[in-house]
Amino acid sequence: MSSRQTQVGVLPAPAVEGNFADMNPRFTVLGGPGGLVAGSAGVYVGRFAWLSYQGADPDNAPTILNSFGFGAPDGLIPRPGQQSLITQYLSDSTLLIQQGAPVWAMSSGGLWVKNTGASYATIGLKAYANLNNGQVTFAATGSASTVSLTSSSIAAGTAVAGTASILGNVLTVTAISAGTIYPGTILTGPSGVATGTQVVAQLSGTTGGIGTYALSIGEQSVASGTLAGTYGVLTVGGGGPPVYGSVLSGSGVTTGTTTWGQLTASTYVVSPSQSASSTTITATTNVETKWYSRSGGGAGELVKISDITQ
Question: What is the pTM of this model?
Answer without folding.
Answer: 0.91
